[in-house]
Design brief:
By secondary structure, the chain is an alpha/beta fold. Helix content is about 45%, strand content about 15%. The longest helix has 22 residues.
């Protein structure tokens, strides 16, 4: 698999030299400074490529866009969407003209990946991302005061939520809001409580089926352009893979993925297979899903989570947690062999180590939550070891 690394551009605390030191060659990045819905110009794309290639000795290249954001109006299905579809297609054309042909995106409404703790202390003073369901329930029910929110949680979770809220300081509540709003480090919109209530109200009449219809419309608009350009679109699963704050989530289960892939049945309409996002759902058999969807997977995020019985979860070591990473990697190496044997020239799947722990000298550096250097380096080294062993034992191409 093509070993890649997420880089957030010139503001990232992790420099490009660290990517080479980690053993990766592919760079996964995005133009976070461009507002959602605006065209990515060739000038801005080549400027980012020039940064990545400035030192030829590093041998780095921009491999995957993560992400080309989908404007909220497209998810809502409101207003004149033609200019937004046109802008997205033009950004695709400009990326393809510059040689970047894999686009990761997501269709999560309002908020992106969601955690309640961005730096949960680990033994030895490292830290991890964590989602505590009772804290999220406290936010949803007692801070946001969403109507009928308590019906989404068990009584046991609500008891803990009330206890947390009853003892939380204003600083605790502000930290929880900031953690929930953190999402992807490049996200353009951050909401306070009133702003979040306003956005949720706009989704009041949108259920699972309606949101899927809006996704299907988006795909119908952009997949033909991807086919024309030889590009691959790779949707990222919901994180966590469950409805939150009353918002539907439509890329959370195997059935969801089957439905979205069949809605526009084209190889250009594919998946970013994220073992952590899917692994946070007790309903998901991640190795089985990797096998089933390997042929339509265009990008792979490898990370692991450890789940609690109440639905909480924490980022684990890449080879720890609840997901059998050896089985997942075997599925994707097997898919690579199928592609190579079929004569596909670009048969290697780009992958990256997702969310690492904050460890050692990275502690306190202020890196994006989940994206410190040493934790991801550790994860990539472990994953590379698994890939090497599986490839050698089973005779599969790396």
């Amino acid at each position: 698999m093509e070993q890649c690394w997420r880089w957030f551009g010139p503001g990232d605390t992790v420099p490009l030299t660290a990517i080479t030191q980690a053993g990766a060659e592919g760079v996964v990045t995005s133009l976070h400074h461009i507002p959602y819905g605006e065209v990515w110009s060739v000038e801005e794309i080549t400027k980012r490529q020039a940064m990545i290639a400035a030192d030829p000795s590093l041998k780095l290249r921009w491999t995957v866009v993560e992400s080309l954001p989908v404007h909220e109006a497209i998810k809502l299905g409101t207003g004149d969407l033609a200019p937004l579809f046109d802008a997205y297609r033009q950004s695709m054309r400009n990326l393809a003209a510059c040689g970047v042909k894999t686009i990761c995106y997501n269709f999560m409404p309002v908020v992106d990946w969601t955690r309640t703790e961005l730096r949960r202390r680990l033994p030895g003073d490292g830290s991890a991302l964590r989602f505590n369901l009772h804290e999220f329930a406290a936010f949803d029910c007692f801070m946001l005061e969403r109507r009928h929110a308590e019906g989404d949680y068990t009584e046991a979770v609500l008891v803990r939520a009330r206890d947390w809220f009853g003892t939380a300081s204003e600083s605790d509540k502000a930290t929880l809001l900031a953690s929930i709003m953190a999402g992807l480090p490049g996200a353009f919109d951050r909401y306070d409580i009133p702003g979040l209530r306003t956005m949720l109200a706009r989704y009041g009449d949108i259920d699972h089926a309606t949101l899927h219809a809006h996704l299907a419309r988006f795909l119908a608009e952009v997949v033909p352009t991807a086919e024309e350009l030889g590009m691959r679109l790779a949707i990222h699963p919901d994180d966590p893979p469950r409805p939150i704050m009353g918002l539907p989530r439509i890329v959370s289960t195997a059935d969801d993925i089957r439905k979205l892939l069949s809605s526009v049945d084209s190889d250009a309409n594919g998946l970013t297979f994220c073992t952590g996002s899917l692994g946070a759902g007790a309903h998901n058999d991640v190795p089985a899903m990797a096998t089933e969807f390997a042929a339509r997977t265009h990008f792979v995020h490898l990370r692991n989570v450890a789940k609690d019985p109440d639905g909480s979860f924490q980022e684990a070591d890449h080879l720890g947690g609840d997901t059998d990473m050896v089985a997942v990697i075997t599925a994707f190496l097997t898919e690579q062999k199928r592609r190579r044997d079929a004569g596909q020239t670009d048969w290697r799947l780009p992958m990256r180590p997702d969310h690492g722990h904050e460890l050692l000298d990275d502690i306190g550096k202020g890196s994006f939550p989940g994206y410190s250097a040493i934790g991801r380096l550790k994860g990539l080294a472990e994953l590379r070891g698994v890939m090497t062993a599986v490839a050698a034992i089973k005779g599969l191409p790396m």
